Amino acid sequence: MKTDDVKISRKKPIYGVSPALQKYLRAYQRDARMPIGYANLLDFYETVPVIDKNGKDTLWETPLYPPHVQETLYNGLKIIYAELKASGNIRVVEHKYIDRVEYCSFGNTHPFRIRIVNRLNDVYDYFYIKQADASRIYGLELEQIISPNPVNYIVAGQTLVEEHIVGIPGDVFARSLMDNPDYNPKRIAKEFVKFNERCIITLLGDMRSYNFVMQITPDFDDFQFRIRAIDFDQQFYEGNPKIYMPQFFKDNLAYVQLCMEHLTERTVSQYQQEERSSIVHRVRSERHRIAALRDVSNTEELSTLANVKQLREGYAAYYGNDQYLKCRTMTDIIELNVKNVIRQVKL
C-alpha cells in the first residue's frame, strides 16, 4: 500500500432522478411523499456560521427563516423524519421537536442537517436533506447491496433524505484515537484493507478520511472496527482509477502506515480475498436487485465519455485484463469487477 497526491479536478455535476430510476426506487420502497422538499429549505434570508467547541468554523451555517416560514418547515421536517424512521407513522414524532437546521454550502449537494430532539428525555437524532443526485443514489444502493452496511434513505422527486450514519470521523479517529493502547492496530489495518477493496470494486470515489467514519464495537475480549462511507457524491464519475482507491489519498496516510507496519503482503491478500468472498455472497443473495439496478443505471448518462475511456483503460492496466476495454459505461466496469470477483472466489 502507498499514498499519492490524488486530486479531483473539479466539482461533479448533479444528475437528476430519471423516470426509470424513480420506478426502481418505488419498486424497492425508497420513494415517499413529503410535505416539503429541498427547495423549500432554501427559503432563508440569512445564515450564521456554526462554530465548534474549539472556536473553529465547521463549514456549516445556521439558516434564518421568517417565523411563519420556519413553523411550516419544522412541521414538515417532523413528518419527513416519521417517513424515514417509521414509514410515515407520526406517533414517533409526537414528543419530538426540531432543535436546529444547519446548511452546508461546501459539497456537491449542499445538504441540510436537521437535529430532532425528544422532549421527554432530550435524546436527539440527526438526518439530512439534499438535492437528489442520481450518482449518490446509485452509490447508496450499491452500499446497501454489496457492502455489509445497511443504509436508510428516501427520495421524493428531486429531494433526497438520508439517515445519519453514526461513527467517529475518519480524520478525527486517525488524529486522536488511533494510538489508543486498548485498540488492536492490526484490526484497524485489516478493516482499512477491506474498505479499500470495496471501494475499488464498487467505484466509490473520494474516500478521504473525512468522508468515512469509524464505528467501534466492544467485543468480549477486544474491539471490532468497521469503516463506513458517509459521502457518495463521487460514485463512478471520475476517470482516474486512484480516485476509487482510498490508499492513494494523502489524507489516509495514517491508515496506510498502519497497514504497512502491521500487515504483510500475504495478510493483505488474505483480507482482500475475505472481502471478495463476502461480496460474492451478498451479490448472490441480492442478484435480482443488483440486476435491476444495473439495467436502470446503464441507460443513464452518469459521467463523461472521456472519464469512462480513462477508467476502463486504467482498470485494464491495473488488473491486466483487456476485457475492461470493451466497457461502454461505468456500470459495465462495475459489472465486470463483480464478475471477476466471482471468478476469483471460485478458483
Please give a structural write-up.
The protein is of the alpha+beta class and 347 residues long. It has two domains: 19-163, no CATH class; 168-346. The chain has eleven helices and ten strands. It has helices at 19-27, 38-41, 67-86, 134-146, 170-177, 185-202, 253-262, 265-285, 287-297, 305-319, 330-346, and strands spanning 46-51, 57-64, 96-104, 112-118, 124-131, 153-156, 159-163, 168-169, 212-218, 223-229. The strands form two sheets. It has a seven-stranded antiparallel β-sheet. The two termini are 25 Å apart.
Secondary structure layout:
Layout: H1 19-27, H2 38-41, E1 46-51, E2 57-64, H3 67-86, E3 96-104, E4 112-118, E5 124-131, H4 134-146, E6 153-156, E7 159-163, E8 168-169, H5 170-177, H6 185-202, E9 212-218, E10 223-229, H7 253-262, H8 265-285, H9 287-297, H10 305-319, H11 330-346
Antiparallel strand pairs: 1-2, 2-3, 3-4, 4-5, 5-7, 6-7, 8-9, 9-10
Helix pairs in contact: 4-9, 6-7, 6-8, 8-11
